[in-house]
Amino acid sequence: MQVPGNSTEEYINNAPVHQQEAIKRILNILEKNLPIGFESAISYGMPSFVVPLSLYPNGYHCKKNEPLPFISVGAQKNHIGFYHMGIYSIPEIMDWFVKEFPNHSDLKLDMGKSCIRFKNPEKIPFKLLEELATKIRPDKWIEAYEKAVKR
């Protein structure tokens, strides 16, 4: 499902009504808890946080003139997608998250490589996402990204 929006506010307003408050809350958590250096943007059609070109001029290997993606939040047909590239790329972050998830939710973790799917907006473990947001600084993300791309 593609939600139209050229800004975060427009995207949220066009998302399904039952997902809007949860998306706002997730983005607010990220805004307040991500380490300095990440910037808010629309990336791949979703509200995102990226490493700006001013901090990482090499840009994203697929699109050199675009900032390096880190986290995106997307309204999908049956869930809210939380796309965290650090979970996918940094094994110790993945291990921590998988181990910690049951302490914050009574639901089974529904996760792909970098996508965590939240089917019920009222059962999102916001405190866990808050803690996750603090785990990776831009320099650590750039290092992990470069290691993965230069294989």
Topology:
Blueprint (H helix, E strand, L loop, with lengths): L7 H7 L2 H17 L5 E5 L2 E6 L16 E8 L4 E5 H5 L1 H10 L14 E4 L7 H8 L4 H12 L2
Antiparallel strand pairs: 1-2, 2-3, 3-4, 4-5
Structure characterization notes:
This protein has 151 residues and is of the alpha+beta class. The protein is 39% helix and 19% strand. It is built from six helices and five strands, in the order H-H-E-E-E-E-H-H-E-H-H. Strands 1-2-3-4-5 form a five-stranded antiparallel beta sheet. Strand 3 and strand 4 form a beta hairpin. Helix 2 packs parallel to helix 5. The model has no long low-confidence stretch (mean pLDDT 94).
How would the global form be characterised?
globular
**Overall pLDDT level:** 94
> How large is the count of helical segments?
6
Amino- and carboxy-terminal Cα gap: 33 Å
Strand adjacency order, main sheet: 1-2-3-4-5
Number of strands: 5
Strand pairing plus helix content: what structural class? alpha+beta
Elements, N to C (H/E): HHEEEEHHEHH
Strand content: 15-25%
Largest sheet: 5 strands, antiparallel
Please tell me how large the radius of gyration is. Answer: 15 Å
Write down the oligomeric state: single chain
Helix residue percentage: 25-40%
Which stretches of 5+ consecutive residues score pLDDT under 50? none
